[in-house]
Design brief:
Among the domains are: 127 residues, Immunoglobulin-like; 307 residues, Glycosidases (TIM Barrel). The longest helix has 19 residues. Helix 10 packs across helix 11 and helix 14 runs parallel beside helix 15. It contains 16 helices and 28 strands. The chain has an 8-stranded parallel barrel. A 5-stranded antiparallel β-sheet has the order 4-3-7-11-10, with no helix packed on it. It has a 5-stranded antiparallel β-sheet with strand order 22-23-24-28-26. The termini are far apart. It is of the alpha/beta class. It is elongated. 20% of the residues lie in helices and 18% in strands.
Length: 716
């Protein structure tokens, strides 16, 4: 390794450490610093080799160029300035700081009191300036070589309406897979391995949504309890793929993963956390932003700038009103698209990013501006549409071009299949894309990302197996996690050998998945639900980096049956454009169509009336989707056509005789799905010709019009 000895003025842009083939330019923004030192370390990261004071400052950016520096060089910063917490200034040059623009971060935090800018526990932090050196306890930034052979890699650009998202954790998905080589389990390379790709392709999903992979920190409190921050919503490096998921170089391995997934026709969406950082509140450690320019990166209270505005529940909130904080986020997003080739983002606690001067109860212009960026405008943007501040619930209020996690969908579908009454009307709205939420803003069904389970909460298996949470393994006295689960254990709490209860649970899982995959909007499946993954009743497994969270790939007959059923649902969805409409159903016949696009039916076979929509006891409904009533064209301008589809839903505990509508005048329907049947997929090809269908209790049935079949176009 060459130890740099020369320092030139360098350039203020781009920010971060940039290798140009001859040397490395270093640039760090800090408006209130008095001086900035660049610290160079040996390859182990344990020994400091040299310090350089950055000689130039341009537009509040400190910069230098080291002509002898090379990729692989480990570095950090020490930033000098006033320590006056009551004014929001917290500089402490004794603390080694990470570069906010670091492309790679190596090593992990070794927790000690030296990592804090003040002495922990002191009653007055402004009187407890801590002079202990934190370098040995800190990870280090690494200069990277950005070149990578992408060959002909291109984004799949899957239309929103054809998307099926699969939310997964890189480590949890691959950690226990027996066909993945042990060194690759839990890594980006493991996710890109043939066995992992084969499962995703067979399942039929179109995109993987990766839980946080930007470099993050394990909380001190968790480490002291023998736990880890497994989910990763504790970011410290917005440009660096986390090294814990890499078998070799994380940057190169991440790029290779994206390239491989693209080759398989799969999009890559990142779950990103720009609302807060791992530094926590005023009692937290000094790792990066706090020591570089605390008052520019964080939202501070107006009445006392010693304290942080916390609308995230994590101690601090990044201040996107600050031009430089906003620039960092935008630069980060562009980097992941341009350099890492990702296809979209899901924004954690998204309203926190758009809050303006005061605690607003509306979505500001921030999200519209983000969508106008020429690079970001072509990728998928998904909001988690709530934060913990006043007016933080913003479901349905994001601008055109954004999609949203629809928790109203989750709650209504769960409650309906749990057996709650008075939900038929809202169940129908969620099933058809939540037009009440999105149509007033000129948005389309794909604005609704529908889900019944996600990383946060019960798995699908646990949703039908537990009435209450069982989070004892988190060592918080079972106080953490949500108590409002809308779950039903089918009669016994937790595992059981009772064949009747096991059969009912399997049927309920099929009901929930069928509803999800046959709804308008974009379905999102939580990883492992297709093979019966359980967290043993833990609905907040954020700190469980162990078998509680990992997928168990030991697939028995029961789990294999569930996998086959899920694959069947996704196949039917992708085959039939009636489930992937680009526009909302109107309940009317488009010009040239012979029937209404959607007809709602009572068990008696009649159209629903206003009175029937409002009956508290109603738990059964039919939905007839007309295959020739789209009013849409495909990519070549041809009218979209499909089969006539009949869906029957019965959340009542007993069987109901459902009077079927005439199928194209013939009365012949082919039953493709009946969740009450063993495995949910009926055998045999004989059409159902009787005028009544015995709709079992707690079941979903999908029927296809035999004589009225069309050849579905690919554009719906």
């Amino acid at each position: 390794m060459i130890t740099p000895t020369l320092v030139w003025p360098g350039r203020p842009y781009p920010l971060g450490a940039t290798w140009d083939g001859e040397g490395v330019n270093f640039a760090l923004y800090s408006a209130h610093a008095n001086a900035v030192e660049l610290v160079i370390f040996d390859p182990s990261g344990r020994r400091e080799l040299k310090r350089f004071e950055l000689p130039e400052r341009t537009d509040m950016v400190w910069h230098a160029y080291l002509p002898e520096a090379r990729p692989g060089l480990l570095y950090g910063y020490r930033v000098h300035g006033p320590y006056r917490p009551e004014e929001g200034l917290r500089f402490n040059w004794h603390k080694l700081l990470l570069d906010p623009y670091a492309r790679s971060i190596v090593g992990s935090i070794r927790w000690s009191d030296a990592l804090y800018g003040h002495t922990p526990g002191h009653r007055r932090e402004d009187l407890s300036y801590d002079r202990r050196d934190s370098a040995r306890a800190m990870p280090k930034c690494r200069v990277v070589e950005s070149a990578f052979s992408w060959d002909d890699d291109r984004p799949p650009f899957i239309p929103w309406n054809e998307s099926v998202i699969y939310e997964l954790h890189v480590r949890g998905f691959t950690r226990r897979h027996p066909e993945i080589a042990p060194p690759l389990r839990g890594t980006y390379a493991g996710l890109a391995s043939p066995p992992a790709i084969a499962h995703l392709k067979r399942l039929g999903i179109s995109a993987v949504e990766l839980m946080p992979v930007q470099a993050f920190v394990d909380d001190r409190t968790l480490i002291e309890r023998g736990l880890r921050n497994y989910w990763g919503y504790n970011t410290i490096g917005y440009f660096a793929p986390d090294a814990r998921y890499a078998s070799q170089d994380p940057v190169t391995e991440f790029k290779a993963m994206v390239k491989t997934l693209h080759k398989a026709g799969l999009e890559v969406i990142l779950d990103v956390v720009y609302n807060h950082t791992a530094e926590g509140n005023e009692n937290g450690p000094m790792l990066c932003f706090r020591g570089i320019d605390n008052s520019d990166y964080y939202r501070l209270r107006d009445d006392n700038r010693r304290y942080y505005v916390d609308i995230t529940g994590c101690g601090n909130t990044l201040d996107m009103r600050s031009p430089r904080a906003f620039q960092m986020m935008m630069d980060s997003l562009r980097y992941w698209v341009a350099d890492m080739h990702v296809d979209g983002f899901r924004f954690d606690l998204a309203p926190a990013l758009g809050r303006e001067l005061h605690q607003s109860d509306h979505i500001g212009p921030f999200f519209g501006l983000l969508r106008q960026d020429p690079l970001l405008a072509r990728v998928k943007l998904i909001a988690e549409p709530w934060d913990l501040g006043a007016g933080g619930y913003q479901l349905g209020r994001f601008p055109s071009g954004w999609s949203e996690w629809n928790d109203r969908y989750r709650d209504v579908v769960r409650a309906y299949w749990k057996g709650d009454g008075g939900l038929i009307g809202e169940f129908a709205r969620r099933l058809t894309g939540s037009s009440d939420l999105y149509a007033p803003g000129g948005r389309h069904p794909h604005a609704s990302v529908n889900f019944v389970t996600a990383h946060d909460g019960f798995t699908l298996n646990d949703l039908v197996s537990y009435n209450g949470k069982h989070n004892e393994a988190n060592l918080e006295g079972n106080r953490d996690g949500n108590d409002h689960n809308l779950s039903w254990n089918c009669g016994v709490e937790g595992p059981t050998d009772d064949p009747g209860i096991r059969a009912l649970r399997a049927q309920q899982k099929r009901n929930l998945l069928s509803t999800l995959l046959f709804s308008q909007g974009v379905p999102m499946i939580a990883s492992g639900d297709e093979i019966g993954r359980t967290q043993n009743g833990n609905n907040n497994a954020y700190c469980q980096d162990n078998e509680i969270s990992y997928l168990d790939w030991n697939i028995d007959d029961e789990r294999e049956q569930m996998l086959a059923f899920t694959r069947r649902l996704i196949t039917l969805r992708r085959k039939h454009p009636v489930f992937m409409r680009r526009r909302f159903l109107q309940g009317e016949a488009p010009e040239g169509a012979s029937s209404k696009d959607v007809t709602w039916l009572t068990p008696a076979g009649n159209e629903m009336t206003v009175v029937e929509w409002n009956q508290e006891f109603a738990r059964c409904i039919g939905v007839l989707l007309a295959g020739d009533a789209f009013g849409e064209t495909d990519a070549q301008g041809r009218p979209v056509r499909d089969d006539n589809i009949l869906l029957l839903f019965n959340a009542y505990h007993d069987a109901i005789e459902f009077h079927l509508p005439a199928a194209n005048g013939t009365g012949e329907w082919r039953v493709l799905i009946d969740t009450a049947k063993d495995g949910g997929i009926p055998s045999g090809e004989a059409p159902h010709t009787a005028p009544i269908y015995p709709l079992a209790g707690r079941s979903v049935v999908l029927m296809l019009d035999v004589r009225g079949s069309q050849t579905p176009s690919s554009g719906g």
